[in-house]
Every structure is written in C-alpha cells, then in structure tokens.
Write a structure and sequence with these properties.
The structure holds 2 protein chains of 2 kinds.
Chain A (H helix, E strand, L loop, with lengths): L1 H16 L1 H22 L4 H33 L2 H6 L5 H30 L8 H24 L4 H18 L11 H7 L3 H15 L7 H20 L11 H8 L3 H12 L2 H8 L13
Helix pairs in contact in A: 1-2, 1-5, 2-3, 2-5, 3-5, 3-6, 3-7, 3-9, 5-6, 5-10, 6-7, 6-9, 6-10, 9-10, 9-13, 10-12
Chain B lengths: L5 H4 L1 H5 L7 E12 L2 E12 L3 E5 L6 H9 L6 E6 L8 H7 E4 L11 H9 L8 H7 L15 H13 L5 E5 L7 H16 L3 E6 L2 H7 L2 E6 L2 E6 L1 H8 L3 E11 L1 H8 L4 E13 L2 H14 L4 E8 L2 H9 L22
Parallel strand pairs in B: 3-7, 3-8, 5-6, 6-7
Antiparallel strand pairs in B: 1-2, 1-4, 8-9, 10-11, 10-12
Helix pairs in contact in B: 5-6
Chain lengths: 294, 342
C-alpha cells in the first residue's frame, strides 16, 4: 500500500511539473469547457446541461488516453521500468497507481466543470450528484484501463501515440462527444454503444435529464467497471519492464480479451431499447433547446 | 553516520543458512541466446557470502546478461540460479527484498528530485536505510533537492547506487558502476564498495577495468564470448598463469620476430615487431641482461626497457584474446604459453 501511495505521490508531482501533462490535464479541459458552454451551447442553460455529458467525456478521454496512457508508454520507451523491475514493486502496483493519479488529477476537473455549468450557466442538472460522481469514476476507470492497455500493446511509444490519438479522434466523433449520438446515422449509433464514452454519455443523460440515481444506472456503470477491471488485469499480465522486450502475438490476443465486456454489454444494449431510446433523446440537442425527459 | 549491519537488516535472512564464505549465489549451466547469438553458454559458478565477486570481460562478453539473469530480470533459456536458496523468478518478490542492483544506465523521471526518488524506491522494500543516510553514503546530500535531469553523469550513477542500497540489501549487484566516471569519482566509488563489503554484504561487480577488479575483488570470473573461462582470486589467477615478468623493450634498429627469438632464446614468449617488443619469461632482469648483451653484439642498441610483473591484465588478455593493453595500445596479442584453466 505504501508503495502505491508513494508512486501516486511522485506521479502526481510529475503531472504538475511536466508542462505537457499540465496543459492536457488542466488548461485544455478548461478551455474546452468554455468552448462547449459559451460557443456550442451559446450559454443556454438547458443546452449546457445537454453538453455536460460530452464535455466530461472529452475531459476524461483526454486525461485517460493522452496523459495517463502516454505517460506509461513514455516511461517504458525511456527504459524507466527496468529500474523498478530490480525492486520488489509489482506490475499491478504500477498500473493501479497510474490509474489513481489520473483519477486524482481528472476528478477535480470534472467537479469544476460541473460546478461551472451548474452555477455559472445555471444548467438544470437533475439527478443525484452521487450518481454523477460514481458514473464519472467508473467511466474514468474504464477509459484509463483502455489507455494503459493501448500503451502496453505496442512496441514503441511512437506506435502507441499514433494509435491512441487515432482512437481518441474516432471516439470523439463516434461517442457523441462532439456530435450528439442521436444525430449519427443509425448504423453508427449501434457501433457507438460499444464504446465506453458513449456508455458514459448515455448514462449521464439518464442522470441529468431523467434524474436517475446509481441503482437505475447500474447496467451502464457495471459495464464500464467491468471493462476497466478487465483492462487492468490484462495490462498487468502483459506488462513489459524492458523497452527492448517486444509485444508477442500472445500478448495481443490477451489484450483483446479486455474488449470482451464491452462487446457483451454493447450487444445487450443494442438488442434492448434502453440505450437506443436515450440516444434518440439526445437527438437535436444542439439545434433545439427542448430536451426531452425533463 | 550509522551504517546498519546487513545481518540485522532483514528478517528473511535469518531463515537462510548462509554463514560467511558459504555460497549465496549458485549458477549452473546457464544459457541465454538473443536470436541466433548465444550470449551466455553454459555458465556455472558459485559466489561466497561476504566477498566482492567480479565478472570481468570485454563489451558484449555476456557479463550483463549473466548478472540480469541472477537478478531475475532476464529469463535464461536453460540452467538454474539460486540466490540465498531462492529462485529469482519463482520467488522474485523475496529475492528482490534481499538484493540491490545498479544498472549500467539509469533512467528516471527528469522532474523528480533526488530525495523524492530515494523515498519512492524506499517504499518498495520492507526494511530500508534512512534516506538521509543513503544521501550521505553516496555523497548527494547537497543535491537532495536537485531534479534528476540536472544531475551530472557521475551524480546519476550515485543515485543509481543509492537506489541499489536503499533496501539495505544483502547482495549488491553493480554493473560497470564506474564506467564513464572521472578518476576521483571512481576512487570514491571504490572506497564505498569496499565499505559495503566490510559491512558484510556480498557484492557482485562487473567491469572491464582490470585494475578496478584487481583492486576491489576477492574473487574474479573472466568471461569471454558467453563462457566463463576461469574463476579465482586475483592472486590465484596470476599464479595459475605462472609467476613471471614481462619486459618491454625498444631497440634502435628494427628486428624481425625470428631475429628477436635468436637474441633472447626459446623460453621467452615474444610479441611485437620492428623496434618494440614485449617479452615474457621467468625473470625480467635476466631477459634484460641477455638482450642488452646480444643486441650490442649484433650492432643494435637497447634504447628503452621496462620490467613489469605479471598482472591480472595478462591473465585477462590470455583468456579474452584482447589485442590491446594499457601500456601500449598499438601492441598486438601477447603470445603466452598454452594454459589449462583449473
């Protein structure tokens, strides 16, 4: 436990001291919040509430994929894990501490963004804040798991960066972060529901617009949590201490198992009506100011 | 400054039966290949407790691979390793509580301070030395607030040594710890290493500095092309090569090897060409006398002569076949008599 605490502390210090982490972790999300609320939502409280899910999703994706995931890939690239490998520290401690640091740097930002929308733009945020907090936590867990997994399955940090950024941009468009899910073509809506950010946005819609609590959102939260825990386990199993150690085909097959929970839950949601109905609720959120459900 | 005796430091050690001089590391038929290159080829040896054990060899000889396999960070293709009776892979966590290791190159986050790094790594061990004591030991007290990126190469090596010591290890692995350091820093490192040995730690050292191995090591293993050629104390190794002396001479006129052979006789090994020769035989002064007289008789003249006792370097050169030696980098291989390792 002490090892994890110290790892968290040192990574936390680094996230404040390294400029690029500071930019993507703090400056960029706040600029995005301003852009979403003031420019896209035109300061309209109802639209600001509609924007909350996509904004929080973008903040978490930036932190989890571009900061936490790439930090791990960078450390491996510079062969820093070899120094750790000589000590009794375990891979799971490094992975978990990485996630905790990401969470500790991201969660306050999410709170600030929520407060910004709620108190500055008077957005009508229904539902419980506890439910939002739990949802944000499991969603971050899922996204950070994905980021760390991606950083583990490529031989170099450069490869990991290219793929992570590609995935980041795909998710931005596919998950409803920049375009409401309901506005996507039907086929893409079915694909979108397999991704963690879409699950988060849909669930956030359930909390904000329908005023649901943790229990009602349990399926989405369980889906996100399961995908996160699978990603952590797989990342630990295939953890490479040495930059010269190549990723084996077996490791890549193991890594693909991390997607199984998302696949199962995506199929379940696609065959049911719950998620698809909520996606339709989000349709026209930007162009109209009359969101359904509230 | 208080140095914690290693035997008090780790409760795990009390379960191990190693008394001083008993083997703490046993390696048997160790093999490791990288692709088609056989880096380690059936190496077997034991390391007794409380000594400085040096692994000497050229770059790429297999030293680091052997050390990393003992440390448990590189898996062997075959063979067995025990460290304090434990398997470094199956019992990795317990073994790493017992060992401290310094890598050849150290990579750590640039924006962490020295003190923060030591504290972080201390958190991984059950029993640790106080951070302040580590800083004092490795001479980084004044740099404790310095970011890692602002340290010099020597200071980074000191951090690496500090990290190796932070878990109060019973066995310390130092992989070319003084490579690239200036003479003064290297001397300080030597003093530190000897101090650690005196505290009862076992130190496994790899180096390609022969004088360093001769100065520090109680036992030496010479490795070449993945094979351990010979082990023993420096004195034993020199004795096995045969007591003797080397005479380095410079003549006014160049002579061929055959002419030199006629000058000096059959019982002397000869290396060199033209005006400069290196001769090895039982007595340097006798060789000197003979060559001075013979050269004069043949109208030549002895310009310069130097008698050198057989050193570990000679043993090293014998086994590694390395062409150069410190006194004259232009010299070729020294032709020593055939030698059978024990």
């Amino acid at each position: 436990m002490r090892a994890i605490l110290l790892l968290v502390l040192s990574n936390f210090q680094l996230s404040y001291r390294v400029r690029i982490s500071f930019f993507f972790g703090f400056i960029f999300p706040m600029l995005t919040a301003f852009a979403y609320f003031q420019i896209f939502a035109r300061g309209n409280p109802v639209l600001v509430a509609q924007m909350m899910g996509p904004l929080l999703s973008l903040t978490m994706m930036t932190n989890a994929l571009l900061v936490a995931g790439m930090r791990s890939a960078g450390m491996r690239e510079r062969d820093m894990f070899r120094q750790y490998h000589l000590t009794p520290v375990r891979a799971i401690q490094l992975v978990v501490s990485d996630m905790i640091v990401g969470y500790l740097t991201c969660f306050p930002l999410l709170v600030v963004e929520l407060a910004f929308g709620r108190y500055f733009y008077h957005a009508p945020l229904g539902g419980s804040y506890l439910a939002m907090g739990v949802l944000c936590s499991v969603a971050y867990f899922s996204l950070a798991g994905l980021g760390l997994l991606l950083s583990s399955i490529f031989d170099t940090a450069q490869e990991a960066a290219v793929v992570t950024q590609l995935l980041f941009f795909i998710l931005i468009f596919l998950s409803g972060t920049t375009m409401p899910l309901g506005e996507l073509p039907k086929a893409l809506q079915h694909v979108a529901i397999f991704t963690p950010p879409s699950l988060f946005i849909v669930a956030m819609q359930g909390i904000v617009a329908r005023g649901y609590g943790v229990l009602q959102m349990l399926p989405e939260m369980a889906a996100l949590f399961l995908s996160g825990i699978t990603a952590v386990i797989v990342t630990t199993l295939i953890f490479r201490w040495d930059k010269d150690e190549k990723v084996s085909q077996q490791n890549r097959i193991q890594a693909s198992f991390a997607l199984v929970p998302l696949l199962i839950i995506g199929i379940m949601f696609n065959t049911g009506s719950r998620a698809t109905q909520w996606i339709q609720d989000l349709k026209g959120a930007v162009t109209t100011s009359s969101p359904s459900g509230r | 400054m208080r140095i914690h005796p290693v035997k008090e430091a780790n409760a795990v050690l009390s379960e191990t039966p190693n008394a001083s001089g008993r083997p703490v590391i046993a390696v048997e038929k160790l093999r490791r290949s990288y692709g088609k290159v056989e880096a380690v080829r059936g190496v077997t040896f034991t390391i007794p407790e409380g000594c400085i054990w040096g692994l000497l060899g050229k770059n790429g000889a297999g030293k680091t691979s052997i050390i990393e396999m003992i440390e448990g960070i590189r898996r062997p293709d075959s063979g067995t390793i025990t460290v304090h009776g434990l398997d470094p892979f199956r019992d990795a966590h317990r073994v790493r509580q017992l060992i401290g290791a310094q890598l050849q190159t150290i990579a750590l986050p640039d924006r962490l301070r020295v003190e923060e790094i030591i504290k972080l790594f201390a958190a991984f061990y059950e029993r640790t030395l106080p951070v302040q004591e580590i800083l004092e030991l490795v001479g980084l007290t004044h740099q404790h607030r310095t970011f890692f990126e602002h340290l010099s190469g020597g200071q980074k090596q000191r951090v690496a040594l500090g990290l190796a010591l932070v878990g109060n290890p019973k066995i310390l692995f130092l992989d070319e710890p003084t490579a690239g350091l200036d003479a003064e820093t290297r001397r300080n490192f030597h003093d530190l290493i000897l101090k650690f040995r005196d505290q009862g730690r076992t130190i496994v050292l790899t180096t390609h500095y022969i004088e360093e191995a001769e100065k520090l090591c109680d036992q030496i293993g010479i490795v070449d092309q993945g094979k351990l050629c010979i082990t023993g104390s420096p004195r034993e190794l020199i004795q096995q090569l045969g007591e003797g002396e080397r005479l380095e001479v410079t003549l006014r006129k160049p002579v061929t090897v055959e002419e030199m052979r006629r000058l000096i006789g059959k019982d002397v090994s000869i290396h060199g060409q033209g005006q400069k020769y290196s001769l090895r035989g039982a007595s340097g002064s006798k060789m000197l006398a003979v060559i001075a007289v013979q050269a004069d008789r043949q109208g030549n003249e002895l310009l310069e002569a130097k008698i050198i006792h057989v050193t570990l370097e000679d043993v090293y050169l014998q086994f590694t076949g390395e062409l150069k030696h410190a006194s004259d980098p232009t010299l070729g291989p020294i032709e020593f008599p055939a030698f059978v390792p024990r």
